[in-house]
Amino acid sequence: MASSSRNNKKYDVFVSFRGEETRDNFTSHLYSALCRQNIQTFIDHQLNRGDEISESLVNAIEASAISVIVFSEGYASSRWCLDELVKILQCKKEYAQIVIPVFYRVDPSDVRNQTGSFGDSFSKLEERLKENTEKLQSWRNALEEAASLCGFHSPNIRGESELINEVVNHILKRLDEVFRPGDNNNQLVGLESTVEKIESLLGVESKDVWALGIWGIGGIGKTTIARATFDKISRYFEGSCFLENVRGELQRPGGLTCLRQKLLSNLLKDKNVILDIGLNFRRLSRMKVLIVFDDVTCFSQLESLIGSLDWLTPVSRIIITTRNKQVLTNSGVRKIYEMGPLEYHHALELFSRHAFKRNHPDVGYEKLSSKVMNYAQGVPLAIKVLGCFLYKREKEVWESAINKLQSILHPSILEVLKISYDGLDDKEKNIFLDVACFFQGEGVNLVVKFFNASGFYPEIGISVLVDKSLIVIDSYSKITMHDLLQKLGREIVRQESINPENRSRLWHHEDTYEVLTHNTGTEKIEGICLDMSKVKDIHLNPNTFTKMRKLRFLKFYSSSFNGENKCKVSYLQDPGFAEVKYFYWHGYPLKSLPSNLNAEKLLFLELPGSDIEQLCDGVKRHGKLNQIIHAACKKLIAKIPSPTLIPHPNNLVALNLTGSKSLKSLPARIFNLEFLIELDLSGCSKLKRLPDISSGNISRLYLTGTAIEELPSSFELLLRLSWLDLSDCKMLKSLPSSLCKLKSLGVLDLHGCSNLQRLPERLGQLSSPILLNLVKTNIEKIPKSIIQLLVLRRLILNYCEGHYESLSKPPFLVRWLDADHCPILQSFIGIIEDSQRTEHMGHVAAARWKEVREKRGCPKEGHFVLAGNEIPRWFNFQSVGSFITLEMPPDFVNNNRVLGFAFSAILAFSDRHVDCGRWFSFSCEFKVKTTKDCDLHDTRLFQSRVNYVESDHLHLGYYLFCEEDFNGFWKCNCIPEAVHFNVFLPLECQCCGVKKCGIHLLHTPDSTNSMVDPSRCFNCN
Fold it and tell me: Could you state, in order of their start, the residue ranges of all structural domains in the chain?
């Protein structure tokens, strides 16, 4: 049945029954039970009927999703009932109507064969109409067909009330299947699986009070998901209520009273309910209820509506949607679902449904649609608003609108997103605006120090912004925010004044250029960020900054690789730098720093490519300075002074001398600085050695392109070193064995160390390596201990031209293997291709998966990138194109031999021998089809870098099932039937296509590949 037909049904249930026998007992009670569950039920209340079924009754049958036939002893004595039955079965055949027979005090076999007392009733009717043989035969056929359907037999169920309960519960489940949102639902595109996850988290059949929070930024789809879940499961509760827009309703006069009235009247099904909270909650404490509180901004709103959650019965459920995670914490909600953006292909489909009224863009609009997707970043609100706005507009209008949106938010999007901002205090608003204008992607430690110095109390402020989904602290401890939220912050600043010099923050190059060239700066300016690569030369007036007394942040940078300083000035006269905490000036033109940089305020000083001649020149009084970066300073002296000559050295956190080509040596105690955690000496091409180390807290050391020949044996004392970059150290010949004692070392980059011939034999002793980069090295032998690197995630071996001894196996848990133009690849390919040696991804995983997962934390998924155009032979199921379906074993859920599955795809590049040098992404969707249509699916996004393309690329990956996956199946009470595997490339990725794909079940070593019949795998290309 098409989902559009389902949604047009006037009635949920039509009841066919013999009135004289069951109207005043069973059927009446069944009808009441259905009504209590809000099931729209048609029942014919006429006592006197004619010989022919009425047209209105025919229409009612056709307008129903389900027909319930109550077979009683006298049912077959009524030609009216039998005509209804024929019509019902006709609708079953033509419209896939669901038919549920109830055998009330009659035997199904008697109905099927017209025997017993049921047959006696039919015989009497047969006697009266013996000449109408065609009609009689149609009735016999209908009775036989209906009695053969699965139904309910009253003698098999104890008590009439229990029979009615079972019938009603079955109807509820079937209605869920009928009215489950389909693909044509514009609201739920890409969110169907989220509804399933929410339902699973709620555990409707559990007997614990579960309150679930749905948390995310405005417009991300929280209300849509909550509404869809409510519509799906509310039938299972005695009372239910969806309180939409709690925040907005409570702001209206009398809003609290109105919401309480709606809550109590809906739950108690009484429009005239008395607003006595104590009395009514006492009644509700005995009921199974479902309540959705939508858009709650503070805990007091919930308190005013329902108090605590303690009065709820163990089978009740609460859903709270909010932008503020703290609301859920204060409410005692332990289960929180964080809403994320839509996947690209789902976002494009949703946009297309609004912009083109179809599932994909019109021809010629593909690239324009992709630009809109890049702008909306998966936020459903933005996608729908822009889709409706651009509907039926010409391409020229699209181009103009897209260009406008880069600097100005659409009013409808701005209105929704700004709600979260309006709820912040002044300090929190300043943090949000600074991040939006200046600190997107910056390290949280630096930002916290900056905000502390600005008096913004960042420890609590950043926490509030995170809880309200306005910013995110990523896994690399960087502060990020959604692109639309960044545009919101910048739009708020833009609206401060029509004149840029009267705004608090300048970040757009045109506005900044205007203020600086016309020397119109005012004391309202607190921060300036200028990309000099986007403007012409600016000849600054010496007193350009004089009026900017509140300036806290100054950054002149160039996004161009060969960028130059375009802010020219011969001297600065009384600059307003007294409050500056962050000072970054690429190509700073003066030989010394401004004289009035405040000693107690400056935290961050970076002058790459400047004319500064002395490292410490001008900073001798700067007591709080903790980061000095003088990268590529051509005039910087060849030798760094002793740390004792660096002012307040113990405050120094980072020292960056990148590109200081004259630097030849480091002071003996440079590694002893107490707070120094990052030292960057990249490009110091005359630096040949490091001093001996006695102690140190450095965690990141960058020596790229130096003349280092060897590392000191005392290197093992850098106990906190997590990142060591030795790339392009062409004089480096070996690494000390003591390196293997660095327990914190996570990244070892040896890219381009062309003289490096060996690695330490005990390399496998490293306990934390995540990435090992051996690109373009001359390694002749990979130590066998490498297989002990249990947490190694990425191994890069591109262009390694040495002659390698064969490895028996690569590191077990490596998640990304990149090995173009590398002879060692033959070892790995042999492993991948040899189905007996290596059911590698299955057998080795099975042997070590449990142990490693318990001890180290085994990744659920992994990804390998290799040059090649054939899928390994051991992939039992292969297909041409991008789509394949694998039918699952019948006992999959309870089969502990199945660990997960491997997948593969061949990407064919249309333009060979092109030096792409860029990243591209593709996504793989895994959709698990189940016996009860409880579809669970997920999408994995993978990224690959293509340098010099000479062949197709083979992408291998795996996914290991975890307890959560199986719990999802169990809670849905369903059995997986098939896995659908689909590879998607972004619309803008036109350089390659999917040539082949494959999928393979991973099992324990004692199992065989016969668990799945290859004939049960098929493709849909």
Answer: 3-178, 192-338, 344-406, 424-494, 709-833, 859-1018
